[in-house]
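Researcher: Let's do a round of design. I'm pasting the structure tokens now; please hold your answer until I've finished.
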């Protein structure tokens, strides 16, 4: 019997009958006791962005092969990208393609010729407070001021070298 089969008396049954243990475990797993109190906090995962060399082929892949809902391409000249959003229910994918000579994703696509995961975007409840605290903590913010992002809300990007190798976008919820 599988460990996930309740009739087997396996893992699921044990989890269901031992809630106090779960709470203890999850507290220690997520180090919630050590999160400092802050004036701002993270919210939902808004999207995961994927840089692609061929936007139409990528759109067709998500729409026709994986069967998801895919938006039209939108040009965002102030960000140097075209974007397409793929609806997933609990979050979105953002397909990115370079726009203009100085696109910030051009060198990424040169290094990753078939495309690749470019950034994650997490919502925050107070982007100004986030900027202030992250600057104090010496996390590099990649613009002087928040810019208006793909959803018409202020966004900032944090340097991937200060975020364990991942480019992180924060969006005002
Ligand atoms: C519409 C909006 C929205 O969603 O609301 C958007 O998506 S706009 C999406 C596009 N906009 C942005 O990405 C804005 C923020 N991005 C930037 O400012 C830039 O792309 C940087 C992240 C600073 C990278 O700049 P650039 O490509 O000129 O530098 P570079 O190629 O020399 O890279 C410096 C180092 O960072 C690494 N690196 C570069 N891009 C990376 C990425 N996306 N994820 C993880 N690491 C990355 C490189 O491999 C390199 O490491 P090594 O030295 O070890 O080789």
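Researcher: That's everything. Go ahead.
Model: Designed sequence:
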């Amino acid at each position: 019997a599988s460990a996930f089969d309740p009739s087997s008396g396996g893992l699921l049954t044990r989890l269901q009958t031992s809630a106090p243990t779960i709470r203890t475990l999850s507290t220690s797993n997520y180090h919630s006791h050590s999160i400092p109190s802050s004036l701002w906090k993270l919210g939902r995962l808004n999207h995961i962005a994927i840089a692609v060399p061929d936007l139409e082929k990528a759109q067709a892949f998500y729409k026709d092969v994986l069967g998801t809902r895919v938006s039209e391409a939108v040009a965002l000249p102030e960000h140097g990208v075209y974007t397409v959003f793929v609806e997933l229910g609990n979050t979105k994918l953002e397909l990115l393609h370079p726009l203009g000579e100085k696109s910030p994703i051009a060198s990424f696509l040169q290094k990753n010729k078939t495309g690749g995961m470019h950034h994650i975007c997490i919502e925050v409840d107070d982007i100004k407070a986030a900027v202030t605290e992250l600057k104090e903590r010496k996390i590099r913010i990649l613009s002087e001021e928040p810019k208006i992002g793909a959803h018409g809300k202020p966004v900032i990007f944090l340097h991937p070298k200060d975020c364990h190798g991942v480019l992180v976008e924060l969006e005002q919820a």
